[in-house]
Amino acid sequence: xxxxxxxxxxxxxxxxxxxxxxxxxxxxxxxxxxxxxxxxxxxxxxxxxxxxxxxxxxxxxxxxxxxxxxxxxxxxxxxxxxxxxxxxxxxxxxxxxxxxxxxxxxxxxxxxxxxxxxxxxxxxxxxxxxxxxxxxxxxxxxxxxxxxxxxxxxxxxxxxxxxxxxxxxxxxxxxxxxxxxxxx
Amino acid sequence: xxxxxxxxxxxxxxxxxxxxxxxxxxxxxxxxxxxxxxxxxxxxxxxxxxxxxxxxxxxxxxxxxxxxxxxxxxxxxxxxxxxxxxxxxxxxxxxxxxxxxxxxxxxxxxxxxxxxxxxxxxxxxxxxxxxxxxxxxxxxxxxxxxxxxxxxxxxxxxxxxxxxxxxxxxxxxxxxxxxxxxxxxxxxxxxxxxxxxxxxxxxxxxxxxxxxxxxxxxxxxxxxxxxxxxxxxxxxxxxxxxxxxxxxxxxxxxxxxxxxxxxxxxxxxxxxxxxxxxxxxxxxxxxxxxxxxxxxxxxxxxxxxxxx
Lengths: 184, 308
Known about the structure:
The complex is a heterodimer of chains A (184) and B (308). Chain A is of the alpha/beta class and 184 residues long. Chain A contains four helices and eight strands, in the order βαβαββαβββαβ. Chain A has a five-stranded parallel β-sheet. Chain A has a three-stranded antiparallel β-sheet with strand order 1-8-7. Chain B has 308 residues and is an alpha/beta fold.
């Protein structure tokens, strides 16, 4: 199917957005003691790493714990997708007991990944609070009552559209593009 | 996303090398899961698994059961010693009755070779072979290869010797298939009376001298002498077997290099290996048991993913 792409965050906006999100976190978490930033596999880890290095640029004395979380085994659409889902790596070498968690993902859409993430997190203890940070929030598309606390950009989109986030680390550029299927 | 090329795990013979790769990759993640503070994931919460053991087993049965429970599946346990099999019910009848209770997967151990293949043709459930007579024991071979991969990184070019009762061993056959598919060199060692007639047709050389065999290998898989499967006397005495084919610490220390010792269990301490060898740093026997849970979780997870 042929598609039209529209850039919704270009390179400059992309990096400004990450800077803004980092500053917003500082407002609420002060020096980040007892705070853990967790990126959701596979695509949320780039954002969480970026946010972390941005925070350290702002104040190198921050002691920020971070990790990655894979939610594959907690998904509710397992066996509804044809093929089994192959998991990614979870790297959390500490418990989250009584910690303030910032869960990080690239795009918030149906909310199902985040729901699985909340379940997966429980396997590592009982966090004090959990907040959600996303780069792109696709509004009005939620299947579950889940909302983000920190949002890079809100996007109004329809189901057939796709939001693709590219990362310098894997795709050679920082960019967010909204693809709309062409009408016949 | 990947998928196994098979719908059941009946034996290693029917697997592709890629299948083994997918299973190992998935097992890596489950190994991380079973070392978490909370070791359970909800993946198979809507799946029911029946463990049908028509032959005795401790390790395999517990390992499957714990793997199933860690995946949140519902588990039914059945062993033939206290069942209607004693009243003359056929295998298909027994299994179909159990399946009528809406079971999705069957893990079966059976004394007859081919029992799992037979079942896969006749009943509508995913079958995992947990050992069928002297035929195959695929999850054991997978966990053995996984343990070697964990220690050495890769199996390609590794020299692996399987020592002992090859004739009666399903572990040996599955291991030969599995290790060869992964590029390892496999030889067997033991008295000729315990060697299957056609073993060389598998591309496996027989070495009758234990010390020569151990000097050749990187890893030695020691098999148990299966007294319950020997109708004939195939060697004069256990004592003589131990003298010629038992591994003790002095023998291990006299070798040119440090080799790794494995054993599928249960160990006859003092027969195929002595206690100081079984408990030494060179033995990875308990790692095998831990990896067994991760491997079985991976197999069940991947097969369950293919249930329509």
